[in-house]
Amino acid sequence: MTGTVVRLRRRAGSGGAGGAVGLAAAGMSLIAACYGLARFAYGLFVPTFRTEFHLDAATAGAVAAGSYAGYCVAIVVATVATSRWGARPVAVAAGACATVGTAVIAAAPGTVVLALGVVLAGSSTGLASPPMAEAVARSAPPRLEPRLQTVVNAGTGLGVLVSGPVALLFAGSWRWAWAAFSVLALAITMWVWLTMPRPGGPGRDGDRGVAPVSGIRVPRAGWRLFAAAFSMGLASAATWTFGRDLVTAAGNSALTGVTMWIALGAAGLLGAFAGDLTTRVGPARCWTIGMLLLGVVTATLGLAASSAVVAIVAGAAFGALYIALTGLLLLWGTRVFPVRPVVGVGAAFLLLALGQAAGAPVLGAVADAVTLPGAFLVAAAAAGLGAGIRPRHRP
User: Fold this and answer.
1) 39: which DSSP letter?
2) Where are the domains of the chain?
3) pLDDT in tens, 255-308
4) How far is CA 203 from the centre of its chain?
5) What InterPro entries does this protein map onto (predicted)?
6) Which CATH class is domain 13-202+219-386?
7) Rg of the chain on CA atoms, in Å
């Protein structure tokens, strides 16, 4: 019965391979702007922000947690709004949010305005993921959907990759770097507005015959998905929030920290192959191996960040693993909720962000109370625990 529903849904929403590929390109760019620039670039600038605004590790972590909290609210709003109005207006709103949020950060005169900008910019990611997953699920031919979903998701790596050189280009003025992020986000928002199918147009079913969000029942497999996503959020919060800070505090140059960030983003593009890998190897095995490796990489970075080579290699490995695992969560969510994929993706990414929102301030407090490497070991332990929470069936 489920297979029949999925086939009918795809037939109703198929817009052809060419249109789906173009949609995926715009979607990947939107994810790059929202995740790589508006949200995760905060971690790249934490050393600068701590100096500029006199922040301790706990406060820096609390500001990051605000970004994750904004994401949590936005992803609920996006899930409901996409179901009611379609993917296009929500995706455009995500780009607009990233544009304004990064502009506010660029102009921030103090910690409060900085925090507001970080929350607004981080909220853009919550608005971006559900509509893009829904649009691809309804536009792509069945044989291409897993690949295109993970290609769009790999936009995070692209954004992180771009943010590093921009930070180097404007090394003497971090405000100009964030202003550049805002301009890039605006251009991508315009592209998405021109590319995304309109509600009821080609590539969408106009929401006819689709269950509303309020009518969705959480299956038993959904709770396993939610627990896995939360554990990954806890495990990844250390590197995203304090990764560059750890590397520079360990005695490396600022260039080494930025190079690690660029390597993280470049390797993250490999996450585009997560869909193909999951199809061949199986989701349960991919999840367990990926989470265990995430724990090893996080612990290695915490213990050996003084070595520039180790820091860069560990950063690259983290980027590839993170994007691949989030791609697996995305596919897992669309299969657990086949009638309404936006709900599965929204719920999985909500729990991922809740884990990061809980982890960032807690790990910051651990860093202040013990050491920053100690906080990374706590995050590594969370990854090890999460490795045992795996999908029972193929997503």
Assistant:
1) I
2) 13-202+219-386
3) 898 899 899 988 888 877 776 777 677 778 889 999 999 999 999 999 999 999
4) 25
5) MFS, MFS_dom, MFS_Efflux_Transporters, MFS_trans_sf
6) mainly alpha
7) 19
